[in-house]
């Protein structure tokens, strides 16, 4: 073999080896196939905001969201809890998220309860596309209709929506974030056609609609293949900034987001900020009934003080006790006349009340169990 032929043989062998390496070997875990193998998972934490209130310290290890799923329900380990309204931004450095056949993005949210979160993706970490929420889209999300074919998205942002802030693992519990699509060079150019993306939402080009974007907000109407839920309102489209208002105006086409106003910093959004659902009737509100006091929110225990401490719409429920009228002042109550009141109460409207009901004659102070005449 000549030196030239030997060199050519080595080059061909190297090219063949590189070709084999460039094709990711699929990986199957718990019945889920990851076409890009070990490279399917987000591998860098960009930003972690632990929310307020935060999850317990042992559940705030942000690196637990990287790599393959490894959550252990027995040890309660292998995941990061975002905290109430917290968020985490992850990056795919060794691979990319793209539109392919079927589901493309897998948010492995785990734990004892399903906690809702908003999902967004970005090419470079600056302009974000809102894919909706986990409860609406599911943990496996098809990004078809939101992106162009062949586009690579390297960033995923997950924001807890404050649906469960009571336990030590407050907020959504993220075990892993994975791209379920094939490598970009293996995705046919015809998987998703006729779609273009703006920085504020999704634009679908079509010839069948004469005015696909009637309100001029840069996002086509749903009727024309876009994602604008109200093409008559230029300040309402997916990806728009949600404003906390008391008018019920939904800026981002997601009624479950209210603008994030939490003036007292107790981790619960102000209930005065709300949106009206697509049915025109249902209201989606924050959960804090008094956003000026940190001791009044859904996580607070009810106390007997004439205030709705836990924001459930009732006042002093479950904490009042029975009192009986003591008209004759002998400290024994009439069993036939009672009322519910706080335990520290004693006088109502000028009358004396006690917690026992042992008086057989409440009109005569000389007749009661002490005098021995109540038998």
Descriptive report:
This protein is mostly beta strands and 375 residues long. Helix content is 6%, strand content 21%. It has helices at 3-22, 134-137; strands at residues 27-29, 32-34, 44-49, 80-81, 87-91, 105-109, 117-122, 129-133, 140-141, 155-160, 173-179, 195-198, 201-204, 274-276, 283-285, 321-325, 338-341, 347-348, 351-354. The strands form 6 sheets. The chain has a 5-stranded antiparallel beta sheet with strand order 3-5-10-7-8.
Write down the Rg. 31 Å
Would you count the extended β strands for me? 19
| Mean pLDDT reading | 84
Q: What is the count of helical runs?
A: 2
The strands making up the biggest β-sheet line up spatially as 3-5-10-7-8
In terms of per-residue confidence, which ranges show pLDDT below 50 for 5 or more consecutive residues? 12-22, 192-207
Structural class: mainly beta
Which percent range describes the beta-strand content?
Answer: 15-25%
Largest sheet: 5 strands, antiparallel
Euclidean distance between termini CA atoms: 123 Å
Give the % helix: under 10%
Would you list the SSEs in sequence order as H and E?
A: HEEEEEEEEHEEEEEEEEEEE
Outline, from the CA principal axes?
A: elongated
């Amino acid at each position: 073999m000549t030196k030239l032929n030997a060199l050519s043989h080595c080059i061909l062998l190297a090219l063949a080896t590189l070709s084999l390496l460039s094709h990711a070997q699929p990986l199957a875990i718990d019945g889920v196939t990851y076409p890009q193998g070990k490279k399917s998972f987000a591998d860098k934490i960009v930003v972690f905001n632990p929310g307020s209130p935060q999850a317990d310290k042992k559940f705030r290890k942000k690196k637990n969201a990287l790599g393959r799923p490894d959550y252990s329900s027995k040890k309660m380990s292998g995941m990061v809890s975002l905290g109430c309204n917290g968020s985490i931004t992850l990056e795919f450095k060794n691979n990319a998220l793209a539109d392919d056949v079927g589901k493309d993005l897998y948010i492995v949210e785990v734990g004892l309860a399903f906690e809702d979160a908003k999902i967004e993706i970005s090419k470079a970490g600056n302009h974000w596309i809102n894919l909706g929420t986990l409860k609406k889209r599911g943990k496996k999300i098809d990004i078809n209709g939101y992106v162009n074919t062949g586009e690579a998205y390297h960033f995923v942002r997950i924001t807890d929506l404050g649906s469960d802030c009571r336990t030590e693992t407050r907020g959504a519990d993220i075990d892993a974030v994975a791209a379920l699509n094939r490598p970009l060079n293996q995705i046919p150019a015809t998987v998703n056609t006729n779609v273009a993306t703006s920085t504020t939402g999704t634009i679908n080009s079509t010839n069948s609609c004469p005015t696909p974007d009637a309100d001029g907000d840069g996002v086509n109407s749903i009727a024309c293949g876009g994602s604008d839920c109200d093409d008559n309102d230029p300040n309402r489209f997916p990806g728009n900034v949600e404003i906390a208002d008391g008018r019920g105006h939904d800026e981002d086409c997601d009624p479950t987001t209210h603008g994030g106003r939490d003036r007292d910093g107790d981790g619960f959004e102000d209930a005065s900020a709300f949106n009206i659902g697509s049915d025109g009737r249902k209201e989606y509100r924050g959960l804090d009934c008094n956003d000026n006091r940190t001791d009044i929110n859904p996580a607070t225990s009810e106390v007997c003080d004439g205030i709705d401490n836990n924001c459930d719409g009732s006042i002093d429920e479950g904490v009042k006790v029975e009192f009986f009228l003591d008209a004759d002042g002998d400290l024994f109550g009439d069993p036939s006349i009672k009322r519910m009141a706080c335990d520290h109460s004693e006088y109502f409207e000028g009358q004396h009340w006690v917690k026992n009901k042992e008086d057989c004659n409440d009109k005569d102070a000389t007749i009661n169990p002490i005098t021995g005449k109540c038998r």
